[in-house]
Write a structure and sequence with these properties.
- Strands 3-2-1-4-15 form a five-stranded parallel β-sheet. Strands 8-7-6-13 form a four-stranded parallel β-sheet, covered by helices on one side. Strands 9, 10, 11 and 12 form a four-stranded antiparallel β-sheet that branches.
- The chain folds into three domains: 39 residues, no CATH class; 169 residues, FAD/NAD(P)-binding domain; 156 residues, 3-Layer(bba) Sandwich (FAD/NAD(P)-binding domain), CATH 3.50.50.
- The protein is 28% helix and 18% strand.
- Strand 10 and strand 11 form a beta hairpin.
- The protein is built from twelve helices and 15 strands.
- The chain is globular and about 70 Å long.
- The chain is an alpha/beta fold.
- The structure holds flavin-adenine dinucleotide.
- Flavin-adenine dinucleotide (FAD) binds next to helix 3, helix 4, helix 9, helix 11 and helix 12.
């Protein structure tokens, strides 16, 4: 599950091969897991240095990591989570065959043991309500759950009305269902009806996970990806597994329109691409080749081309700085937003990234909130001027353009 970017950077590469950091960590995690299930895990040291109430919105890896670190300092943490289960994308996105649920549960139980309260089925709608309830700092870690639109004909007509981003078990019966909605429903144990012939659009891990999940529901699955295999952002080993399980991948092909009959999807028209010059992502741009249109029959189409944060819960007068990608604009070093006492991190700042990066954001947010509450200056020499109030000289972090398609 971890992309282990550290191994690519390992200096041992210059001699032969990288240290097997991912496998070593896996060994430690398995060892620790066994201790936890046998009740032999060592007690975590805590401190009572700061005892303020802190609200964390979102129980994904960013929110849970910040909760863990801050609880160890003595803070009273409440994590608010809109879904019925905690874990964020670890639970709602990543399929169980890749991340067994007992592992998530054990880790969350350990966090709860530190006194962290997790309120599930609770969608936050106003930050001011939390402030009135006495929360001295707020960490927004809401992830990126809103599927991006393809912008092709038929998309709106066949999309279930609440597919972007709210729940629907079966694409409203019309056949066009966003991948996050699809995976979330399967992972939450809902009865999900999809067709026999499924097309997944995209080349990232969400696309591969959607395809392999659909295979497990008994469908024949085609993936349509607009560039070549070399540019596909999904892990190479995941792509191989998907192919082994019977997923057919159409490389260098883009969707053109969704075709339907009697209000239901029946096929998707695609066009073949060739690779042109590199675009802003550094990958070669797909260029459609005229006259190469072809059709793939389908009764369900699952777009998995990237996501952005769902900020529809924020009231109109929220005053938070938001980027054109609907992500929160924060100071890169401290994760402070433009409003004092409000921090944001994880996918809701960077756009869809990785568990590892979300965990790193959680640690960073906890450190900043600690400094904010204990009124200590930032010891990091790169940001000597961090203020307790609004940081004036913020280095804005503009999220990268979503790039799964
Ligand atoms: C299908 C899929 C597969 C992936 N596979 C991998 C992988 O193999 N390896 C890897 O490293 N990364 C993977 N990722 C990416 C990884 O899961 C995310 O980068 C990571 O989970 C982001 O963490 P986060 O804490 O920022 O947000 P999330 O994990 O998305 O958590 C945010 C939480 O906030 C909640 N929330 C949102 N709004 C509100 C609100 N208003 N009130 C209350 N709660 C709210 C959401 O319900 C959610 O539970 C995958 C992602 C997907 C979608």
């Amino acid at each position: 599950m971890c992309f282990h970017p550290c191994e690519a950077e390992c200096s041992r590469n210059e001699i032969d091969q990288p240290l097997a950091i991912c496998s070593l960590k896996r060994f430690l995690a398995d060892y620790e897991y066994r201790l936890a299930v046998n009740g032999e895990r060592l007690a975590v040291k805590t401190d009572n240095r700061i005892t303020e109430k802190i609200a964390i919105i979102g129980s994904g890896p960013a929110g849970l990591t910040a909760a863990y670190d801050l609880a160890r300092l003595g803070c009273k943490i409440t994590v608010f989570e809109e879904l019925p289960v905690a874990g964020g994308m670890l639970y709602a996105g990543i399929p169980e065959y890749r991340l067994p649920r007992n592992i998530i549960k054990t880790e969350i139980d350990a966090i709860k043991k530190l006194g962290v309260k997790i309120k599930t089925n609770t969608r936050i709608r106003k930050l001011s309500t939390l402030q009135k309830q006495g929360y001295k700092a707020i960490f927004i870690a809401i992830g990126a759950h809103k599927g991006l639109k393809l912008g092709i004909s038929g998309e709106d007509k066949f999309a279930c009305p609440d597919s972007f981003p709210q729940d629907s078990a079966n694409g409203g019966g019309k056949g066009f269902l966003d991948c996050i909605t699809f995976l979330r429903n399967v992972n939450l144990g809902k009865k999900v009806k999809i067709g026999k012939k499924v097309i997944v659009i995209g080349g990232g891990n969400a696309a591969i996970d959607s395809a392999r999940t659909a295979i497990r529901l008994g469908s024949q699955v085609h993936i349509v990806y607009r560039r070549s295999r070399n540019e596909m952002p999904a892990n190479k080993w995941e792509i191989k597994e998907a192919e082994k399980e019977g997923v057919k991948i159409h490389y260098l092909a883009s969707p053109v329109k969704i075709l339907g009959e009697k209000g239901k999807v029946v096929a998707m028209e695609c066009i073949k691409n060739k690779l042109g010059l590199p675009d802003s992502s550094g990958r070669r741009r797909p260029v459609p080749v005229e006259g190469t249109e072809f059709k793939i029959l389908a009764d369900t189409i699952i777009p998995a081309i990237s996501q952005q944060p769902d900020i529809s819960w924020l009231p109109a007068d929220h005053k938070l700085e938001i980027s054109k990608w609907n992500s929160f604009v924060v100071d890169e070093e401290t994760l402070a937003t433009n409003l004092p006492g409000i921090f944001a991190g994880g996918d809701c700042v960077t756009g869809p990234k990785t568990v590892l990066e979300a965990i790193a954001a959680g640690h960073k947010a906890a450190k900043s909130i600690d400094r904010y509450l204990s009124r200590t200056p930032n010891p990091n020499p790169r940001t000597p001027n961090m203020k307790l109030q609004l940081p004036q000289k913020r280095k804005k972090k503009e999220p990268l353009c979503p790039s799964s398609l």
